[in-house]
């Protein structure tokens, strides 16, 4: 059973009151509408006509809404909201310049298929994503958001020789950050739902007072009616092998990014989270791939998951998927109101900067907590330290990658992607010789057994997750108590650990232990001589993830396993 975090107001399977759901859906949708600027960047770079710009904009928004609603209902069933995906911006521009809208369609179709395939295999790839690697991904998600926080605050000289801090923008960003942070800390109950929205409103008020923003300012220059059906321009397909190669690279990069968002979202519902639910991860990645491909075929641009909505879920304490479904419906509705999009896109850059900084700080802390969730061993310390160090180095010294600008290698050398690749490779290398084993012998009387001390010692030596060690200690204690009444002679115990599974095997002479599938009722406990023994066997089954009894060489065996 998941342990409910103290900050959680409404969990994934709970439904907030209608008004609260509407407010939260509006906040999540507002973040998506802000990020529609990514679509505009692509349309301007390709010099598309006003009609084609509007078509790509409304199509992408429509797919975002549809994808958000359906994934919450049928796929990951998490509070995941789809956004225009910034990872694909340079590739979409390159594809559009090379092969037109048909090239973008091929790029996204290929990327969607690759991501769907990876999603179907993610369960088998668990060894690549232990908590250390996942933690590095989440940390670098936060680090990668930091440069974006400078937009609207810092301007660069024409010759790029120096940076200039815009005082007004800095004030707006700080006010947005301060109000949002204060709201998430000191507001109580339903009032916390307004924290980021209050931050945005406060930032806009300050921006207006300082004369750096006017209500209704539009960044896109699109001339659109107030209401209209979503405009869809089917692009056709223009095949180019180079686009396929870039799509594969981009899809793998995006999978790493979105895996961090899925993990972060899942963790919000469980204070004792230890490992990803790979069924949920798989369905989430597959859904993202499907809707990216659909958006490309309909003439939109790539969609994907955003850490900003995860931040909002954390700040409000609401992870209900009902909010995601409401947000999806709202996004689809807004696709019929293009004039609203024009005004939403006028949000000041400095306000966005404050929100991004808030999100970045959360992910850095959350990722560190995840990476250090197991007892630290020298192997894990190297995986975490070297990976994050490599990513931060590339982030702080971008000149290291300038020679690869414009190539697919440039995306591999993105700080978050490179740090993740380093973490995966180091994790695999560090697994050499990682299997640990300890053998001990206990007397049937049990006077020489101290399960808590044994598991604490082994946990520190092997770098075991604390929760796993506690469960194993309780199971060892229960097993030795049970076997003390039926074993004839000493009890051999072998404990093995490989970072994925902790296994314990008890071998003894005597009667076999029974592990019933249900707890004995009151009559069995009082009338049957084996009632207490059966109850103990049922408790063992509940304490462990896997449990079996067997006979080998004339001796009885009890085997227990715990997923780590």
Automatic annotation (TrEMBL):
Mode of membrane association: Multi-pass membrane protein
Swiss-Prot/TrEMBL keywords: Membrane, Transmembrane, Transmembrane helix, Transport
Transmembrane segments: 20-42, 54-75, 87-118, 127-148, 168-187, 194-213, 322-345, 351-372, 381-400, 412-430
GO molecular function: xanthine transmembrane transporter activity
Main localisation: membrane
One cellular-component annotation, GO: plasma membrane
Compartment list: Membrane
Superkingdom per UniProt: Bacteria
Pfam family, one: Xan_ur_permease
Similarity field: Belongs to the nucleobase:cation symporter-2 (NCS2) (TC 2.A.40) family.
Protein name per Swiss-Prot or TrEMBL: Xanthine/uracil/vitamin C permease
Protein species of origin: Aestuariivirga litoralis
């Amino acid at each position: 059973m998941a342990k409910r975090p103290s900050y959680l107001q409404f969990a994934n399977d709970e439904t907030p009151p209608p008004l609260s759901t509407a407010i939260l859906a509006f906040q999540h949708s507002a973040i998506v509408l802000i990020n529609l600027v990514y679509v505009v960047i692509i349309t301007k770079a390709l010099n598309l006509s006003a009609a084609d710009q509007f078509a790509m904009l409304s199509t992408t928004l429509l797919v975002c809404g549809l994808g958000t609603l359906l994934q919450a209902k049928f796929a990951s069933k998490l509070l995941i909201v789809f956004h225009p995906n910034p990872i694909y911006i340079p590739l979409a521009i390159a594809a559009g310049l090379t092969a037109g809208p048909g090239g973008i369609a091929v790029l996204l179709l290929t990327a969607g298929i690759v991501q769907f395939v990876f999603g179907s295999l993610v369960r088998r790839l668990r060894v690549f994503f232990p908590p250390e690697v996942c933690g590095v991904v989440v940390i670098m998600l936060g680090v990668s958001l930091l440069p974006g926080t400078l937009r609207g605050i810092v301007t660069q000289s024409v010759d790029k020789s120096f940076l200039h801090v815009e005082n007004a923008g800095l004030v707006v960003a700080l006010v947005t950050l301060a109000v949002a942070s204060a709201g998430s800390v000191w507001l109580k109950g339903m009032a916390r739902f307004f924290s980021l929205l209050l931050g945005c409103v406060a930032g806009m008020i300050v921006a207006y007072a300082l004369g750096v923003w006017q209500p209704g300012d539009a960044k896109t220059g699109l001339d659109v009616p107030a209401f209209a059906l979503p405009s869809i321009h089917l692009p056709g397909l223009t095949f180019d092998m180079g686009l396929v190669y870039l799509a594969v690279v981009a899809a793998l990069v995006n999978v790493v990014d979105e895996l961090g968002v899925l993990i972060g979202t899942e963790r919000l519902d469980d204070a004792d989270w230890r490992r990803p639910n790979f069924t949920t991860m798989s369905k989430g990645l597959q859904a993202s791939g499907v809707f990216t491909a659909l958006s490309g075929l309909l003439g939109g641009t790539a969609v994907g998951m955003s850490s900003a909505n995860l931040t909002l879920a954390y700040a409000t304490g609401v992870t209900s998927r009902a909010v995601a479904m409401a947000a999806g419906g709202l996004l689809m509705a807004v696709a019929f109101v293009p004039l609203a999009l024009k005004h939403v896109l006028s949000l000041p850059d400095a306000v966005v900067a404050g929100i991004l900084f808030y999100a970045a700080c959360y992910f850095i802390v959350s990722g560190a907590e995840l990476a250090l969730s197991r007892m630290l061993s020298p192997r894990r310390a190297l995986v975490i330290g070297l990976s994050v160090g490599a990513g931060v180095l590339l982030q702080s010294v971008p000149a290291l990658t300038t020679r690869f600008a414009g190539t697919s290698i440039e995306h591999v050398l993105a700080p978050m992607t490179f740090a993740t690749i380093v973490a995966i490779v180091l994790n695999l290398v560090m697994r050499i010789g990682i299997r640990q084993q300890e053998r001990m012998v206990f007397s049937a009387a049990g006077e020489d057994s101290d399960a808590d001390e044994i598991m604490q010692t082994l946990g520190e030596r092997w770098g075991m997750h604390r929760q796993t060690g506690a469960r194993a200690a309780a199971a060892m204690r229960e097993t030795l108590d049970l076997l003390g009444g039926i074993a004839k002679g000493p009890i051999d115990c072998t404990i093995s650990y490989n970072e994925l599974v902790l296994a314990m095997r008890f071998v003894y002479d005597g009667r076999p232990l029974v592990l019933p599938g249900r707890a004995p009722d009151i009559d069995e406990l009082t009338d049957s001589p084996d009632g207490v023994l059966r109850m103990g066997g049922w408790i063992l089954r509940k304490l462990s993830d896997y449990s079996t009894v067997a006979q080998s060489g004339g001796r009885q065996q009890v085997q227990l396993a715990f997923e780590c």
